[in-house]
C-alpha cells in the first residue's frame, strides 16, 4: 500500500493542447505560429479582395471562367473568416478551462 500511495503522489505531467503528455513548447513557438497565422489570414483576405475587385472593375473578365474564380474567391473569404472565428472560440475555451 505504501509504494502505491507514493507512486500516486507523484504529480503527473500536464497535457498539451493536443491532449498528449509531454514538455510544454517554448514561448517563441506560439508567437511564431501566431504571426504566421495572422500573415496568412491577411494575405488570404487581400488576395481574394483583389480577385473580386478585378472581376468587378474589368468588363472583359465577366465570363464563365472568371465568374467561377470569383465564386472561389468569395468562398475562401468565408472559409478564412470561419477559421478566425473558430480559432478565437477555441482559444477562449482553453483559457477559461485553466
What does this structure look like?
By secondary structure, the chain is mainly α. Helix content is 74%, strand content 0%. It has 3 helices and no strands. It starts with a helix and ends with a helix.
State the helix count.
Answer: 3
Distance between the termini: 33 Å
- Major β-sheet, in short? none
Averaged pLDDT: 74
Series of secondary-structure elements, N-terminal to C-terminal = HHH
Helix content: over 70%
Total separate domains: 1
Poorly predicted residue ranges: none
What's the Cα radius of gyration?
23 Å
The percentage of residues in β strands lies in under 5%
The geometry reads as: elongated
Instruction: Kindly name the structural category.
Output: mainly alpha
The total strand number stands at 0
Question: How does the SSE layout of this entry go?
Answer:
Elements: H1 2-9, H2 27-57, H3 64-97
Helix pairs in contact: 2-3
